[in-house]
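Reopening this ticket.

The earlier resolution said the output was attached, but the attachment link was broken on my side. Pasting everything inline this time so it's all in one place.
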Amino acid sequence: EVQLVESGGGLVQAGGSLRLSCAASGLPFDDYAIGWFRQAPGQEREGLLCISSSEGSTNYGDSVKGRFTISRDNAKNTVYLQMNSLKPEDTGVYYCYAAVAYWGQGTQVTVSS
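Inline output:
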């Protein structure tokens, strides 16, 4: 059974930082590109960043450019999302995604002003 488990979410003040983790099991992790998405209340799920199996990263948009970075540790089957300079509009549920088939259950991030 494939599982993606996100962790590291929580409540943080604006300007603060969090690091999310996505731990994978049940799949050949090295072969998968992994992405981070978020869904704010009442909005559609938004793609943020993706990292390929060879560790090349891609930004999906400008909303987190320069503030969020993605990395992976294939030895630990884990992908990380480092989030700095957080803003209230970064609030939402953050999901990891193993392209093109598997989603995690999400972790809540709340940024207070």
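Reporter confirms the inline version is readable. The chain has a mean pLDDT of 94. The chain is about 0% helix and 50% strand.
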